[in-house]
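User: Predict structure, ligand nicotinamide-adenine-dinucleotide.
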Amino acid sequence: MAEIKLGVIGAGGRMGCSVIRQISKTDGCRLLGACDLPGSKVLGRDAGEFAGVGELDVEIQDRPEVFINHIDAVIEFSSPEATVKNSGLSAEAGCAHVIGTTGLTRDQELSMGQAAHSIPIIYAPNMSLAVNILFALTRQVSSILGDEFDIEVLEMHHRNKVDAPSGTALGLGRAAAEGRNVSLDENAVFTRSGLTGPRRQGDIGFATLRGGSVTGDHAVIFAADGERLELFHRAENRQIFARGAVRAAIWSDGKGPGLYSMADVLGLNPS
Ligand code: NAD
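Assistant: Predicted complex:
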């Protein structure tokens, strides 16, 4: 199999660095270009040296145009605005685009989706391989067990996280609702305090814990009378997202245009 040539956008960021490290230790792919924001202090540095894996002979540039015509796929963890613009550049260059950036508005998602008419785009707010399996398991278990099983989604993150519940917890709630064929909006319970009364059958509850340096724990609990099934994922570091992103970039090789998810990459969607 020919080597897959990759580029990284947002190379100076935490995820960009993790992706560069992941590429450097993955057989079958090679980093050919890296860029970050104009004015960033990482510009001109060697991407490998900056990411702590030794020189890769790839200078961090301020524009993806410099390398985008010479690569097979680009991996981007940057800002929503940059991601929308760069998906258009990828479409013009005919290179696949793996998008880990979060926080895109619906309109920005629609603009990004335009590019998917001409190239494969893999877009996932959580690139962890195991978390994406947890989504699929949650959907499946919830479709099998009736609503005599109460569903609760529990998450814990470090003390500095500012939003709650996490996007992944919401995604798990959505997967549980899809499994039951109901709307999450109509069944979600985000807070309980004081005299709440008994739990309503069919509720999908959320609980949020914050503390210390926890990278991200998620549990989905299916609780019935006399038994309880718990699905649990524990993230220990950011490298898990980079691993998923590089796997997605390799998977994109030879794929036709379209908007894909990590479920497609993992073969969890019927083709
Ligand atoms: P970060 O702030 O450490 O890094 C972002 C980098 O993007 C910075 O170096 C910034 O200079 C660069 N950047 C911004 N605009 C740019 C542009 N126009 N061109 C090139 N580079 C540009 O942030 P991070 O923690 O690495 O996260 C980046 C994004 O990835 C966020 O949206 C975050 O929520 C998301 N994220 C997604 C996953 C996932 O699994 N999908 C996992 C972790 C983080």
